[in-house]
Amino acid sequence: MSEKSRNLAKQLKLVFKIFSRSPTLLFSLAVLLVYIIAALVVVLGFVPPLPPYKGGWEYMYQPPSLRDFPWYILGTEYTGRPLLLTIIYGIPKTLAVAFLSALITVGVGTAIGLIAGYVGGLVDELLSLAINVALTIPTYLLALILVVILPPELKTNVLVLAGVLSITAWASLARAVRAQTIALKRREFIDVAKTIGYGSWKIMFDEVLRFMAPFIAMNLVLSCVGAIYGYTGLAFLGLMPMTPDNWGVQIYMAIRGGGALYSDKAILALWSPIITIVLLQYALINIAKAMEDIFNPALRTYLQGEEM
Amino acid sequence: MNWALRKAIFSLAAWFLAVSISILIIVLSPGDPALIMLTGFLQQGIPYDQAVRMVQAYIGFSPAEPWWSKWLRYLLGVVTGNLGVSITYRIPVAQLIANAIPWSIFFVSYSLSLTVILGVLIGIALAYYRSNTIFVRSVTTMLTVFNSIPNWILAAVFFVYIGARWQLLPYMGPYSNDVTPGLNLQFIASVLYHYTLPTMVMVLTSIPGWAFGISAMASAILKEDFITYAKARGLPSSRILWTYITRNSILPIYANIAITFTWLLVGTVWLESQFLLPGLGSLLATTSGARDYPVMIGVYVILITAIVLGALFTDLTYGFIDPRARVGET
C-alpha cells in the first residue's frame, strides 16, 4: 500500500470512528438524507402537483384525513391545499436557496481571503478594507431592504435570492481564511512549492486551500443554516412572495390568519413547518460540529492514540 | 491614547463606506425606491413635475437625477440629520427614529447583559464539571437545540403559547395601560414585566454561542501550568475559578460582545414586531410592510451606525482591559 492510500484509509477510519461514536450525528445525517431524498423525489416529479387554491373557511385548516393517502394526514393549510404536500414542496426550493447561497458565500469568502492573505501588500490593504466594511453590514438587514425593493419577478428567482442572502455573509469567512493563509504562507512547504516552480495561483488554490478544506467545508454547512434562517425568517415578516411552499409563510399564516392564537384548529399548520425548519437546522449544525471535531487536532490525536 | 484615536478614525471610515455602499446598492438595484415612489404618485394622477418634487421631499433625492447625485444627496442628508419624511406617518424620519431609539437601547442592552452573564456562567460550569458526563451531555444537547431554533420561531411559539394561549406573561405592548410613562416605579416595573418574554427569547437563542465559546476556552485554561501551581499553593478553589479561570476565559472572546450586539440588534426586527414593542426593529418591520422607503432606509442607516459604534466601544474597552491589544494592532 502506498503512503498516500494508507493515509487516506487512516483518515476514513477516523471519520468512521467519530461518526459511530455519536448517535446524534448519525441521527443528523439520517435527517439530512431524508430531506435530500424528498427534494429529489419532488424534482423528479414523483409527487402529485399542488392542487389549485381553494378559498373559503370550510377548506382552510381541515383536520387530518386518510383521503388521497398520505397527502392529507396533516390536514390542509390556509389555501385549502394538503399541508404535507406544501411542506414537501418547500424542501427542494429551500435546499436550493440554502446551497446556492452557501456556495456564493464560501466561494467569495475563500477567494477574497486567500488572495488578500497570499498576495499581501496593497491588494491585502484594499481587500481587508472591503472585508471590514462588509463585516459592519449584517446580511439579513441589507437582505431585508433588498427583498422589499426588488421587483416580484426577481424575488422568486432562486439565484437572486441566494445572492441577496449572501450579500455580506462572506466577510467573516474571508477574514478567517486571510488569517490562516498568512500563517500558512510562512510554512516550509510553500517555499518548497515556490522553488519547484509552482505558480502563485497553483500554490494558493491547491497547496494552501487543501489545508483549509475542512474548515471551508464546515463553513459551507453553517452558511446553509444562515441562508435557511434568512429565507424563512424574511418570509415570516411577510416580505417574501406569499407562496404556499415557503415554511416561513406557512407559520406566518398559521399565526396571523389561522387562529393558532386562540384554538387548536391550525395547530398542525403551526407546528409542522416549525419542526421541519428546526430539524433541518439541528441536523446541519450537528454535522458542522462533527466536521470541526474531525479536524480538531487535539481530539484527533486522542482518538488515534486510543488504537495504539 | 493614539491607538484609540486611530480606531475611531478607522471606524468612521468603515461607517462612511458601509453606508455609501448600501445606498449605492439600493439606488442601483432594479427597484430604486425613488422610481417606485414616482410611479406610485403618477398612478394617483399627480402631474409629473409635482410627483418628482414630492419624491424629493419625502426621500431626499429625485428619481430623475443620476445615481452619484442621489447617493451624494442622501449622504449629505444623513450627515446633516435630515433623513426625509415618512410616507405613512407624514412626520420627519429623524423624529420617528429618535422616539424608537431609547426602547431598542433598553431591549438590546438588557438582553445583551443577561446573555453574556448567563452564557459565561453556563460555559464555566460546563468546563468545571466536565467529569460529570450526564450534566455536560444534557446541557450541551439543550444548548445545541436552542442554537438550531431561529429566534423568530421561538418568539412565535412563546407568543402563541406562553402569551396568548396560557396567559402566563404579557405578550403585547411595552407596558400596561394603567401606568403613566415616566420615571416612576410602577412604570419601570411594568416595562420590565412586559419585556420578560421577548428578553427570554433573545437570551435563550443567543446563549449557546457564548456558553460553547467560554467552555472551550476554560477547558484549555484548566490544563495550564499556572492553574496547577495555584492549586499547589493551596488557593481556595473559588478564587481559582473566578480570578484565574473565568477572567482568562472571557478575555479571548471579549470581542464577541460586538458580534452578539449586532445579532441582537438585527433580532429586534422580528422580536419587537412579534411582541408589538416600540423600537427600531419594529419600525423597520412595519414600514417594510407598508413600503415606506424613507423610514426603511433611515432606520437601516441608524442600525449600521449603532453597529459601528458597538464595535468601536468593544474595541476601546478591550484595549483598556488588555493592554496587549493597544500595541501591534493594525
**Main β-sheet description of chain B:** none
Assembly state here?
heterodimer
- Write the H/E string of chain B, N to C: HHHHHHHHHHHHHH
What does the largest sheet of chain A look like? none
Number of E-state strands of chain B: 0
Average pLDDT for all residues of chain B: 91
State the separation between the terminal residues of chain B, measured CA to CA: 15 Å
Termini separation of chain A comes to 20 Å
Unreliable residue stretches of chain B: none
The domain count of chain A comes to 1
Work out the helicity level of chain B.
Answer: over 70%
From the helix content, strand content and strand pairing of chain B, which structural class follows? mainly alpha
Summarize the amount of helix of chain A as a percent range: over 70%
Q: What is the molecular shape of chain B?
A: globular
Structure explained in plain terms:
The complex is a heterodimer of chains A (308) and B (330). With 308 residues, chain A is an all-alpha fold. Chain A has 13 helices and no strands. Chain A has a single domain (39-51, 64-306), classed as MetI-like (MetI-like fold, Orthogonal Bundle). Chain A has helices at residues 3-21, 23-43, 83-119, 121-135, 139-149, 152-155, 158-165, 170-185, 188-196, 200-236, 247-256, 267-294, 297-307. The two termini of chain A are 20 Å apart. The mean pLDDT of chain A is 87. Helices cover 75% and strands 0% of the residues of chain B. Chain B is built from 14 helices and no strands. Chain B has helices at residues 2-28, 33-43, 48-59, 67-80, 93-128, 133-148, 151-165, 185-194, 196-222, 225-232, 237-250, 256-274, 280-289, 293-321. The relative contact order of chain B is 0.13. The model of chain B has no long low-confidence stretch (mean pLDDT 91). Chains A and B meet through helix 4, helix 5, helix 10 and helix 12 of A and helix 1, helix 6, helix 7, helix 12 and helix 13 of B.
